Amino acid sequence: MTQHQALASPTAVKQSLSKQQYIASDEIATTVYLAQQLGKPLLTEGPAGVGKTELAKSIAAATGRELIRLQCYEGLDETKALYEWEYAKQLLYTQLLRDKLQETLAGASGLAAAADRLAQEEDVFFSMRFLLQRPLLKAILSEQPTVLLIDEIDRADAEFEAFLLEVLSDFQVSVPELGTLSAVHRPFVILTSNNTRELSEALKRRCLYLFIGYPTVEQELDVVRLKVPELNPKLAQQAVQLVQQLRDMDLRKSPSISETLDWAKSLVALNAKQLDAKTLETTLSVLLKHESDLQKVRRRLQITTGGVEVDDDDITAYRRRRD
Fold first, then answer.
1. Which class would CATH give 3-80+136-211?
2. Would you tell me which of 10, 78, 202, 273 could form a disulfide with 30, CB atoms 3.0–4.6 Å apart?
């Protein structure tokens, strides 16, 4: 499917993403469409595991574009994001071409003359063959349209964020030895943030903004049915309802959609027929990643499980009695 076909309208975006098993809301579909139409980067914020990175992957698959990913982290700098020279390769070529270099320098009257002759040949060693392209430059120079995913931008330093603003404004890079390198095709840029720090207003102004939060019961159940169709329908509904209730608790890390799917797959692997106390006790660690959360939820669930099956009435009772 071509980019034009996949992103021809918000409805087309929604349908194209659905074919990639990504269930997009009307807001997501419309914002993705507008980002493409306006040629602006798309900044997606929200809790970890709600599908921000998956959205970028699905857009790339739906449009037939290569996905180029820059994973951000503290200390990330230009050389790791943009380019660097392959000095080891340059040195190897120098050694292999030693005889040729001697011929070039033969007859030079002095060091200055030899340096001048060598300078005339330096373009050989500072050319594209020795330029190691990192994700940003690779996306800019790609001969084919790409999706550039800048993942977890909030983990990078403010200094790198400022550098990124310049790149996203012009989609061109100045390499002193080569000059200005401009984008062959303007990439579809998607930035994700888990909101671990506040991003600059300058960056937000340059982007369309999309917040992706936890889904409703109906939305999450649709995702589970799509991704784990072999899970018993009643068990799927019970599992999703329980996950939704866990998110209402004051946990250190609430379960995300990805953890819901892991839990659904675990229930299938265990051939579980019902959400009884034993199943909950032995599989809660699939949903929760901190011991304090596990202990808190186990104490709370004792109110309703009591060693018996957790059915719809139990869930309703839990909802009434929770804090």
1. alpha beta
2. 10
